[in-house]
From TrEMBL:
Gene: mutL
Listed Low complexity bias regions: 416-427
Protein name: DNA mismatch repair protein MutL
Domain of life assignment: Bacteria
Family: Belongs to the DNA mismatch repair MutL/HexB family.
Gene3D superfamilies in the cross-refs: 3.30.230.10, Histidine kinase-like ATPase, C-terminal domain (3.30.565.10), MutL, C-terminal domain, regulatory subdomain (3.30.1370.100)
UniProt function note: This protein is involved in the repair of mismatches in DNA. It is required for dam-dependent methyl-directed DNA mismatch repair. May act as a 'molecular matchmaker', a protein that promotes the formation of a stable complex between two or more DNA-binding proteins in an ATP-dependent manner without itself being part of a final effector complex.
Species: Psychrosphaera ytuae
InterPro entries the UniProt entry points to: DNA_mismatch_repair_CS, DNA_mismatch_repair_MutL, DNA_mismatch_S5_2-like, HATPase_C_sf, MutL/Mlh/PMS, MutL/Mlh/Pms-like, MutL_C, MutL_C_regsub
UniProt keywords, alphabetically: DNA damage, DNA repair, Endonuclease, Hydrolase, Nuclease
UniProt cross-references to PANTHER family, sorted A to Z: DNA MISMATCH REPAIR PROTEIN MLH, PMS, MUTL, DNA MISMATCH REPAIR PROTEIN MLH1
Region: Disordered, residue numbers: 410-438
Chain ranges of the DNA mismatch repair protein S5 domain: 216-334
Length: 680
């Protein structure tokens, strides 16, 4: 056979083999044409899964009468004109093959009316017949493309079409992805005369994040938004927006995975590799990451003309983009580890007096809550907050509801020398009363120091009661000294003032109490599992490594990671399994006797205490396995600091020089600084 030029009809059918695979391929090409035409509303009407009819109707700019026939020719397009345009493509379509390919395997009718044209016109083409018949028609501004009897003239391809339901599911999935990329456009999907999906325009929302979040809620679900963290990364002219699902909620079947580059649906290998790398240490083998990713960059920085279906692209700065994607997703994942510290509320007695007084101290909680929540939330994301977490939204309501009870309680305090109220449910901390903002230190007149108690009684006018602060009262009992689990000397206890014979101190009550409660519960449960046997004789079963459902990531300094490397064999012998990645310690296995505990919160504290113990030891003195196990089942050594503080404060006011010296302090003193000062 000699070499010859193929007839146009045959060439079109060959091209149709690449462009038109199934009904969803036709829908994709036609909807993308509508988007390129500037449509704000697109209707997709399907009959029998696309076997019988596909109708795409838009309100775009339309096609003039004299260009209708030309639009059905091969390589005819209005989107590019020269090689420079090809190197900086801003439209979804550009090859000019879609309409010609579709018309060669179906009965195609295009009806269009530009705004500048008084009447609408239709162009009709059927199969191999290349002649185009143009007729007048009735149509509003915009374009309609109707495809009838797809593959009617190619029976071999038609018999490979799937069932009606299957083909429509492909179309529905396609429209879902296109709708995700264009939240400002309304999409209506119909099947056999019934409206199946309607995605409304989100342009009424204020900002880009809210607009896109609104469409995500429509396309996936509002529940998906609640499980995601949002990140926006900008570098030079590259903008990346990420909605990443928390690892423990990611699915293994049909995960929500949406990636777009300049508004184009994408399944690029580089993007997928970057996302898998970011989630590598957070997912099990069967889990898949769930995300919505938008990448915007200059058109000349990406080549979309490398794949027949345009599903893959080539980036000019691939490595840079890869690292930016990894960074954005890792930041989202790190948000979840920080957010987990806020998920467990502190149980508090429901006694009305204690509740009324504690409600007086809401303002510092507002400040601290805003600080913490700002780290893990975005304007489009809502995290579940503990009951005790006071936010600016619910703060004023809480103040108004407790105003009457607070006034009654103040009157009760004035008439009662030593009021007693309920205590919180965490051990070791017994609030005998709670105070308020320390606005005017000279207004605190009557402070007492009991033989066994460091505390305060405040007699003041109601105007001195404020919403800023929480005055703590620690009662020294054998149980409190032996069971409090907290590095209280580090950042929680602060001496505010000395007047008369007592010391008034303030602490971050809710944060500290939450930490104490979590660690005590974890430690006590662990003791129950270990029992009364010697720590050095833990059974092999108790030391058996147990995999964690979700690996725990702990950020450490390089020096701390180096210190842990010295004892990694000891930790592995106890049952820990971990690895180091960048500045993170990633814990994948724990000893079986702590497998069911709240390790998310307690393990970071355990490793922090372990590192502190290693620093205290002489360089030549190695830590033992028994000491590591003791840290797992016993409270941390911060109790000793609290014991010393209590002992020293009991005798502090017995010496005039100490009392006057402490009163001269210009700012609150941290517990550790207090210990150093008392040692002078």
């Amino acid at each position: 056979m000699t070499i010859q030029i193929l007839p146009p009809q045959l060439a079109n059918q060959i091209a149709a083999g690449e462009v038109v695979e199934r009904p969803s391929s036709v829908v994709k090409e036609l909807v993308e044409n509508a988007l390129d035409a500037g449509a704000t509303k697109i209707e997709i009407d399907i009959e029998r899964g696309g076997h019988k009819k596909i109708l795409i109707k838009d309100d775009g700019k339309g096609i003039p009468k004299d260009q209708l026939a030309l639009a059905l020719s091969r390589h005819a397009t209005s989107k590019i004109a020269n090689i420079e345009d090809l190197e900086a493509i801003v439209s979804l379509g550009f090859r000019g093959e879609a309409l010609a390919s579709i018309s060669s395997v179906s009965r195609l009718t295009i009806t269009s009316k530009p705004k500048t044209q008084n009447e609408a016109w239709s162009a009709i083409a059927e199969g191999l017949d290349m002649a185009v018949d143009v007729k007048p028609a009735a149509h509003p501004n915009g374009t309609s493309v109707e495809v009838i009897d797809l593959f009617f003239n190619t029976p071999a391809r038609r018999k490979f079409l799937r069932a009606e339901k299957t083909e429509f599911s492909h179309i529905e999935t396609l429209i879902r992805r296109i709708a995700m990329s264009r939240p400002e456009i309304t999409f209506v999907l119909k099947h056999n005369g019934k409206t199946v999906k309607r995605y409304r325009s989100q342009c009424h929302l204020d900002d880009a994040i809210s607009v896109q979040s609104g469409r995500i809620s429509e396309v996936i679900s509002s529940g998906f938004l609640e499980m995601t963290s949002v990140r926006s990364v900008q570098y030079d002219q590259i903008n990346i927006s990420v909605w990443a699902c928390r690892p423990d909620m990611c699915k293994s079947v049909n995960p929500a995975q949406y990636a777009f580059v300049n508004g184009r649906m994408m399944r690029d290998k580089l993007i997928q590799h970057a996302i898998r790398q970011a989630y590598a240490n957070s997912l099990h083998a069967e889990q898949q990451p769930e995300y919505v990713l938008f990448i915007e960059l200059p058109a000349d920085e990406v080549d979309v003309n490398v794949h027949p279906a345009k599903h893959e692209v080539r980036f000019h700065h691939a490595r840079l983009l890869h690292d930016l994607i990894v960074t954005a997703f890792q930041d989202c994942i790190q948000d979840f580890s920080r957010a987990s510290m806020l998920e467990e509320p502190v149980p508090i007695d429901s006694d009305k007096d204690f509740q009324a007084v504690s409600d007086q101290s809401t303002q510092p909680e507002v400040q601290r809550s805003s600080e913490y929540v700002g780290q893990v939330q975005t304007e489009s994301q809502k995290q579940v907050k503990p009951d005790w977490l006071v936010t600016p939204q619910n703060y004023q309501t809480a103040v108004n509801e407790t105003q009457i009870e607070r006034s009654a309680l103040v009157a009760k305090e004035r008439s009662t020398p030593s009021p007693m109220s309920s205590t919180t449910s965490f051990p070791g901390l017994k609030p005998k009363s709670t105070g308020t903002e320390y606005q005017n230190r000279s207004s605190l007149t009557q402070l007492q120091l009991d033989e066994c108690t460091i505390g305060t009684e405040i007699q003041s006018n109601d105007k001195n009661l404020s919403k800023l602060g929480s005055v703590g009262h620690l009662e020294r009992t054998p149980q409190s000294v032996s069971s409090i689990q907290s590095d209280i000397s580090k950042d929680t206890l602060q001496v505010l003032s000395v007047e008369g014979d007592a010391v008034l101190f303030w602490f971050e009550q809710q944060v500290w109490a939450s930490r104490v409660s979590r660690l005590l519960s974890w430690s006590n449960d662990t003791k129950d599992d270990v029992g009364q046997q010697p720590l050095s004789s833990l059974s092999v079963e108790q030391k058996e490594p147990a995999p964690l459902l979700v690996p725990i990531r702990i950020r450490l300094e390089p020096e701390e990671l180096s210190n842990l490397k010295q004892i990694d064999s000891l930790l592995e012998g106890i049952g820990f399994g971990f690895k180091q990645h960048n500045n993170f310690l990633i814990i994948k296995q724990v000893p079986s006797f702590i497998r069911s505990k709240n390790n998310n919160h307690a393990l970071p504290e355990f490793f922090a205490e372990l590192l502190r113990l290693m620093v205290k030891k002489h360089p030549s003195e190695l830590i033992s396995e028994q000491q590591i196990v003791e840290l797992l089942v016993k409270p941390a050594t911060g109790v000793n600091d609290l014991e010393k503080i209590i002992q020293e404060l009991r005798i502090l006011t017995s010496t005039d020089s100490h009392r006057s010296r402490l009163k001269q302090l210009a700012k609150p003193l941290e517990g550790r600084q207090l210990l150093q000062w008392l040692a002078l």
